[in-house]
Design brief:
alpha+beta; Rossmann fold; D-amino Acid Aminotransferase, Chain A, domain 1; 7-stranded mixed sheet; 14 helices; 19% strand
Length: 386
C-alpha cells in the first residue's frame, strides 16, 4: 500500500522472489504503480477516510479472491495505523507482519520512545516532557519541539518539527499545537556534521528475535533542512545496531522498522532520534546490501522464517530526482558531486555498480519513465511526503 518510492522497493523485493504482489493506493501517480513486479494495481479508499474503516471494508471485499491469506505491507504511518486500528476485523483474512496498534502508537510517540531509551540506557538528545510541566525557561535555545503524532503534526503544519529560539516562541508553538490536539516533546538542538545521520534498520519477529539488522548513513537530503534522504550508504556499526534492537525490544515492537540516530559533533556520541514503524524511503539500500527486510517479513508471516547474513558494506542508494535538485541548488555540476558521472552512466546503462536508485532500474524500467514524465509534463500531483 502507498505505491510510491517505498512501495516500489517492497514490490521489487517480493516480486524478484516470485511472490505475487498486488499494489494498492488511494490515488494515481505513485512512482511504483507501473512496476512489472505488480500482478495487479487497484485504487482503494485512503487510510484517512472514516478512520480507516473504508479501507478495511475494501480489503474485506477483496478477501474472497485469494487462495491464502495475503501479507499486508503498508509503507507510511497513515496506512500502518489504519490497518493496525482495524486488525481484529482484517486478521482472519490477512497476515500482519508488524506489531499491534498500541505498540505502534507507543513507538511513534516521542514521549514514549525517549522514556524507553532512558529505561534501556540508550543515549538520546536531552529531552523535556511537557506532561511534567513547562520547561520553557530552562531549555537551551535554539530548541526543537517534536510531536507525539508526527503525521497529524505534518498535516497541520506541513513541517516535521518546530525550531524555537525563545521562551515566548516556545509557549506560542506549544499552544498552537494544543489547539489542534497535538502534544509535543522539547529536545536540545544537536549539531551534526555531514555523514552524521545514521539509521538502524531491522526486522524483528513477534517474539522480539532480530532476523536481520542493517546500519547505514543518510548522506544527503532534500530539502536540505529536515528533508528526506536522497543519498545514503551502507556502513555497519555494531554498537548502534545493538542499541536500536534494544529499544525496539523495550517497546515490544515487531516488524520492519528504521531507527534514526545522529552523531553529536561535539562528543562523537550517537543519539537516538526517531523510529519509523514500517518500510521507509531508502529500504532499497539494505536490500542491496543483503538484508532483504521485506522478504524476511513475508517469509516469517507465512511460517517460513529465516535469518539474514551480515550486510555487505559499500553499496549506496540515491533518489536521482531529488539529488539533482540538491546539487543544482548548491550550484555544483552533477559530475563533480558525490555521485560521479561514471557511476551515473553505469546505473542508467544497467552495468554493474554499487549505486542503487530508488526508482530507476533497467530490469523494471517503467517507473523511471514515470519520473521523466513527472519532470517534463508536471506529473500527476501525487501526495506522498517522500
Amino acid at each position: 500500500m502507498n505505491m510510491h518510492v517505498t512501495g516500489l522497493a517492497v514490490a521489487r523485493s517480493l516480486g524478484r522472489a516470485a511472490i505475487p504482489v498486488l499494489g494498492l493506493d488511494k490515488e494515481r501517480g505513485g512512482l511504483g504503480q507501473h512496476s512489472r513486479h505488480l500482478t495487479g494495481f487497484e485504487l482503494v479508499p485512503g487510510p484517512e477516510v472514516a478512520g480507516g474503516a473504508a479501507l478495511a471494508d475494501a480489503l474485506l471485499a477483496m478477501a474472497g479472491r485469494f487462495d491464502d491469506r495475503p501479507v499486508l505491507f503498508p509503507t507510511n504511518d497513515d496506512w500502518v495505523l489504519a490497518l493496525a486500528r482495524h486488525r481484529d476485523r482484517l486478521e482472519p483474512h490477512f497476515r500482519y507482519p508488524f506489531a499491534s496498534y498500541d505498540v505502534v502508537q507507543r513507538a511513534l510517540s516521542k514521549t514514549e520512545l525517549y522514556r524507553a531509551c532512558e529505561a534501556r540506557g540508550i543515549a538520546c538528545p536531552r529531552s523535556w516532557y511537557l506532561d511534567e510541566g513547562d520547561p520553557a525557561d530552562e531549555v537551551p535555545y535554539p530548541c526543537v519541539l517534536k510531536p507525539d503524532d508526527s503525521r497529524g503534526f505534518y498535516d497541520a503544519f506541513r513541517a516535521k518539527v518546530f525550531v524555537v529560539r525563545s521562551p515566548a516562541e516556545f509557549r506560542a508553538r506549544v499552544a498552537e499545537a494544543a489547539e489542534r490536539g497535538l502534544t509535543l516533546v522539547a529536545q536540545e538542538w544537536v549539531d551534526t556534521r555531514p555523514g552524521g545521520f545514521w539509521s538502524v534498520a531491522s526486522y524483528l519477529s513477534p517474539d522480539g528475535t532480530p532476523r536481520g539488522v542493517f546500519t547505514g548513513r543518510k548522506l544527503e537530503q532534500w530539502p536540505p533542512d529536515f528533508g528526506t534522504s536522497c543519498l545514503a550508504d551502507a556502513q555497519w556499526d555494531p554498537a548502534i545496531a545493538a542499541a536500536g534492537v534494544s529499544v525496539l525490544q523495550e517497546l515490544g515492537y515487531s516488524g520492519i522498522s528504521e531507527i534514526e540516530f545522529v552523531q553529536d559533533a561535539r562528543t562523537g556520541e550517537h543519539l537516538l532520534l526517531d523510529v519509523n514503524t514500517r518500510a521507509w524511503k531508502w529500504i532499497g539500500l539494505p536490500i542491496a546490501a543483503g538484508i532483504d527486510l521485506p522478504l524476511l517479513a513475508y517469509r516469517d508471516a507465512v511460517g517460513q522464517p529465516f535469518d539474514a547474513g551480515r550486510q555487505v558494506d559499500g553499496a549506496r542508494w540515491m533518489f536521482l530526482r531529488d539529488y539533482v535538485q540538491l546539487v543544482r541548488a548548491r550550484g555544483v555540476q552533477v559530475p563533480e558531486a558525490q555521485v560521479t558521472k561514471d557511476e551515473w552512466t553505469a546505473l542508467l546503462a544497467g552495468r554493474p555498480t554499487s549505486l542503487v536508485d530508488g526508482v530507476h532500474d533497467p530490469d523494471d524500467p517503467e517507473p523511471g519513465y514515470d519520473v521523466l514524465w513527472e519532470a517534463l509534463a508536471g506529473g500527476a500531483g501525487y501526495s506522498c511526503a517522500c
